[in-house]
What does this fold into?
Amino acid sequence: MSDKPRLTREQIAQRAAMELPNGAYVNLGWGIPNLIADYLPENKEVYFHSENGILGMGRRARPGEEDYDLVDAMKVPVTLMPGASFFHQADAHLMTRGGHLDVAVLGGFQVSEKGDLANWKIPAAKGPGGIGGAMDIAAGAKRLIVCMEHTTKEGAPKVVRQCTYPLTGLACVDTIVTDLAVIDVKPEGLMLREIAPGWDIEELQKLTGAPLISVGRASEIKFV
Amino acid sequence: MRKKIYASLDSAVADIRDGARIMFGGFGGAGFPNNLIQALAQKGTRDITAISNNCGTRDGELGLLFKNGQIRHVIAAFPGPHAHYFLQQFAERKVTLELVPQGILCERMRAAAAGLCGFYTTVGVGTEVAAGKEERVIEGKRCILEMPIHADYAFIKADTADELGNLTYRLAARNFNPIMAMAATTTIVEVEEIVPVGSIKPENVVTPALFVHRIVQAKGIRYV
It folds into this structure.
């Protein structure tokens, strides 16, 4: 495996943050997506939805400010933005499943060339796994972005022809942001939009389990 | 006025027999009816079918009932990383699990509440969740049939009840509680405070009194 530098988890989050339109209602999943709120460009205002029933969730609570009735879906005490609202769980997922949010960003174990997503259970792991809200979000997101490393710790591709891990949803992913590339899932296949600095398409293709389509030279990943 | 206020937690759960189906509110540490759960542990009801988002946080929340071996089957969306007693019992095959996508868990309970006999959804199509379920195409989309989830009891946590049983919730501690309150045959609520009828402004009532059958005042317990 190449030892060229890759994006850090924080840089993946920073790049994904650029995909969010100003004024968007957005749900962030566990893992790298959860870091995105910290990397919003200053001129951008986004309203975060938390699946436990908050719209307009603000930054994490500072020490001394915590109220454990005001937590995000990961149990972390948070704050509210002006104009926030609370609602029950059924409405929280009516928003995700019913296509009322503009963008959802989830973590992933595997994404297929058709945009199938596997992100809730590793086959070898002990225990039954946990679905949480991921299947509702995958089924209903107007636009679904997946943030993940391009390969597993062992170097196996996570962008694949067909998912081998238990599925979360079929043909649901629109864009993949990894530590090596930004890829759009299109009917004709995986369109390479941007590539990590210092990498070329041949090197990237070797670490990708499905063919990448590139129109001309993919531009370098930028953060502004 | 119907007599709904119970003097003690023990008296509120006194008639719950072995084999009961019980919904438990709460998500992310907020809105769990922990006092009622402790009273049920004390009573020793066994062979419970539990319906809840998750399966406990160490000794807290549903953890206590799994630790005591009181739960036989659980319907949940996200058992959780700290559900040690559940995971142990699951591995030993002492408890069975039906894993349900979180929003679908809500809607199945809401279907029961609303007198609906099921619904079709795109959530879970092509995944493990679809196994054994009727599939059909509606408006060009593959859908699966989901059935209602009924329960004998709902244990819920609210902030304030009036003497009739109108309820308000605090911040994001609302989550599953209003849905479960509507779905069960008998709804038992623990509240921080009971106030005279008329003290809650009608437009601020989240759960109307007709869904609430038993009210107990108890200072909330939290497991962080």
Helices of chain B lie at 9-13, 34-43, 63-67, 84-91, 102-114, 177-183.
